[in-house]
Write a structure and sequence with these properties.
It contains 13 helices and 13 strands. A hairpin with a 2-residue loop joins strand 5 and strand 6. Helix 6 runs parallel beside helix 11 and helix 8 runs parallel beside helix 9. The chain is elongated and about 90 Å long.
């Protein structure tokens, strides 16, 4: 259900056509309803009919099998032999849709261009794309991660799959830090060129020493918080004079204006980085490990004797947390809907109890909506007011493997 929700809001044709359902509706708080109907047409092609409201047939938008049939960059001997199944006539080898997606990108332009004629649906299915996290494959290669959104096709690196995936997210963190630093430097250069003019303009101001000192202390505190996360740019503020004159106070007033302006671009990324480090450090502390941010903006992990640890040396649970929270803070687009399946996997019992608090902090700072599917009362941790219990009819005697990827067997 989470995967189908993400696919509906992202208009992922392969998932919408291959997942077995009759109708699927998503209700929004403003009263709109996105309704999907999966049908078989006269040519035995599957179609998904989408309406912005069930009662408005004029908004019907159709995605058919033709939208995912075209292959790009695949061998000419590869052909589709059944839903979700492909065969190489030369070698005889068969491939699943997931394996085919590793070799090429699914065509999307055809129906996305048509969507321009359906503004009501485009508003509901627009960007940012939802993020679907299949926790069983959270740290696997990007193509297999089970995620939807702008980051699902980020390239994997060499080394272990988990470490490679995490480096993709930490690279995004590093890039955001670098851009914030560049913005701060641009502000610094701009303010330096106009300092004299601003100082002259302040010549007639009356500045009280007590209020100036309070402002100075706030600026220093902000600077030190940035420095702890490797984000401070320039030298630390000069010490506050033991005694001041009106002229000194006016100069300090302009000086603090400039400092506050140059720190502003760094504050948003520092807020996210601080939350990330607080969450991770609280979990790493019992094993003697901690996080650090290098001068180049790299998120590092240190042992109890301050030796740098590669990501692969973290436990599976620690890697899980690093991947999840770094993704949500530095890769997910603000305003995204995030759907997480079984977040409890690989989590220590105490970490489960803290998960809702942690994810709420992350969601708040990055403007995310989060929906979790869980079997764990530890994840709920008493917040039953947030839960919605699902009751799904299953035939007696039917065997259901809840951890099966299901990609190759949906039609079976």
């Amino acid at each position: 259900m989470l995967r189908l929700t993400a696919a509906a809001l992202a208009l992922d044709a392969r998932v919408l056509l291959s997942t077995v359902y009759k109708t699927f509706s998503i209700k929004f708080v403003d009263g709109r309803v996105l309704q999907l109907e999966r049908t078989l047409n006269s040519k035995n092609d599957l179609e998904v009919h989408i309406r912005a409201r069930p009662s408005q047939s004029r908004s019907k938008f159709v995605i058919s099998g033709d939208d995912v049939e075209t292959l790009e960059g695949l061998p000419g001997d590869l052909r589709k032999v059944a839903p979700n199944h492909w065969a190489d006539d030369r070698t005889g080898r068969r491939y699943s849709s997931v394996e085919v997606d590793r070799m090429r990108r699914t065509r999307s332009g055809s129906w996305m261009e048509r969507l321009e004629a359906f503004p009501e649906i485009r508003e509901l299915c627009g960007r940012p794309l939802p993020v679907f996290i299949d926790t069983w494959r959270l740290d696997s290669r990007a193509e297999d991660s089970g995620m939807l959104g702008e980051w699902r096709r980020a390239p994997a690196r060499t080394g272990s799959a988990a470490a490679s995936r995490i480096r993709t997210y930490t690279d995004s963190l590093r890039d955001e830090i670098a851009e914030a630093r560049r913005a701060s430097i641009r502000v610094t250069q701009s303010r330096d060129t106009g300092f004299a003019a601003r100082a002259l303009a302040a010549a007639s101001l009356t500045i009280r020493e007590a209020s100036l000192h309070e402002r100075y202390d706030r600026t220093v505190e902000r600077y030190e918080a940035l420095a702890r996360n490797g984000l401070a740019v320039g030298e630390a503020p000069i010490p506050f004079p033991t005694s001041t004159t009106p002229t000194v106070r006016r100069i300090l007033h302009v000086f603090l204006d400039d400092w506050d302006r140059r720190l502003e671009p760094l504050i948003p990324v520092n807020e996210k980085l601080q939350i990330l480090r607080e969450i991770l450090d609280s979990k790493l502390a019992p094993s003697g490990k901690r996080t650090n941010v290098s001068a180049s903006g790299e998120l590092e992990f240190l042992s109890s004797n301050d030796r740098k640890l590669p990501v692969a040396r973290l436990s599976s649970g620690e890697q899980h947390l690093v991947a999840l929270f770094t993704l949500l803070l530095f890769a997910a687009k603000p305003g995204s809907l995030v759907l997480i399946d079984e977040p409890e996997i690989s989590l220590h019992a105490a970490w489960k109890h803290a998960f809702l608090v942690d994810i709420s902090r992350v969601a708040s700072v990055n403007d995310l909506q989060v929906v979790l599917a869980t079997h764990s009362a530890g994840i709920v941790n008493g917040r039953w007011d947030l839960t919605e219990e699902l009751e799904l009819p299953i035939d007696i005697g039917e065997e259901v493997d809840v951890h099966d990827d299901g990609e190759d067997d949906l039609d079976d």
